[in-house]
Amino acid sequence: xxxxxxxxxxxxxxxxxxxxxxxxxxxxxxxxxxxxxxxxxxxxxxxxxxxxxxxxxxxxxxxxxxxxxxxxxxxxxxxxxxxxxxxxxxxxxxxxxxxxxxxxxxxxxxxxxxxxxxxxxxxxxxxxxxxxxxxxxxxxxxxxxxxxxxxxxxxxxxxxxxxxxxxxxxxxxxxxxxxxxxxxxxxxxxxxxxxxxxxxxxxxxxxxxxxxxxxxxxxxxxxxxxxxxxxxxxxxxxxxxxxxx
Length: 245
Known about the structure:
By secondary structure, the protein is of the alpha+beta class. 28% of the residues lie in helices and 20% in strands. It folds into 3 domains: 4-35, no CATH class; 47-165, no CATH class; 174-245, no CATH class. The longest helix has 22 residues, at 14-35.
């Protein structure tokens, strides 16, 4: 039903008022879309970033935090001794760069290192050598270690421990299935017959005998993740090691 208000000069209907308001709102919406042409993005980080982030959070000790998609300018700062022009030029290198992951101390957010996911342009498989980027040079100048991982590779928890530990020394969680019931003593052997755990990847250590070199014939402890992890541990008490199970 349409209600009409009439006078001697003209007739105004509520339908006309409605159409005027609707057109006004439509024009305002179009103007707003032109001024703010934005929409919500999909996932905050890529599937590869999600995978590495999930594994790191599961594998790292509780004392660490892992953050994703961090701006380079939030991790390093320009030397205040430079001139204003030099500072501006140095800052320009930082503004458009982001780091895939950053590992920090949970207690005070101190930066321990960065993780970058690289493409397949350079790898031992295709014979290409990876070239250092500005990000590498900036992080090196700031004394921040960086770990490079292949973006397309599916890493296991042990793989990540090995790759990260080559550059950044961190504490890792030990698999409950590999834990021994008692602590490792100074000789690297536990009282219940085990040999402790690798300081790099957290896997169990096993007894080995050197076949050649200066230590040929001597026993030592090696990571059970060999050849992925080549960490070894020499034991001074070789006689005690030879008696261990």
